[in-house]
Specification:
Blueprint: H1 2-27, H2 43-49, H3 51-84, H4 90-124
Helix pairs in contact: 1-3, 3-4
Length: about 140
């Protein structure tokens, strides 16, 4: 069961990481025809302004949240399966209950991180997950 859950978790996390990467690549070429076309900043310009680091940080944070959510969901299901198959054994029931409680607490922590980021972003009047850096000449 452990090997199957680890394999499934690895496959799902790889899928979501690659999906996020391709979504970013697909959306990077979008332009607004109503606005005069400007040359896009180079990688060096984005790195100097801090934008490149921020893009990587936000991508990494989103990936961690996705993997964490999948992990807690799988851990909860694993605890539920252990509960069902415990056949009344007290030690197995306690172990299954502990897994389910830990998975629930993990989901609360992941959810609260979104709330904290949203609250701090509201206080600072910026969107922390999609920051915009102004660069000279652009």
């Amino acid at each position: 069961m452990k090997k199957i859950s680890h394999t499934l978790l690895t496959a799902l996390s790889t899928f979501f990481i690659s999906a996020q990467y391709y979504m970013i690549q697909a959306n990077s070429g979008l332009t607004n025809p109503a606005i005069e076309k400007q040359s896009s900043p180079t990688t060096a310009d984005r790195a100097q302004s801090g934008g490149l680091f921020t893009e990587y940080f936000v991508f990494f944070w989103n990936t961690l949240i996705t993997v964490g959510a999948l992990s807690t969901l799988l851990y909860f299901v694993w605890g539920a399966l252990d509960w069902v198959t415990s056949a009344g054994d007290k030690s197995k029931l306690e172990s299954a209950r502990g897994k389910m409680i830990n998975a629930f607490l993990g989901m609360l922590i992941l959810g609260s991180s979104f709330i904290i980021v949203g609250f701090v972003g509201t206080l600072l009047n910026i969107n922390l997950l999609q920051p915009v850096f102004l660069t000279p000449g652009f």
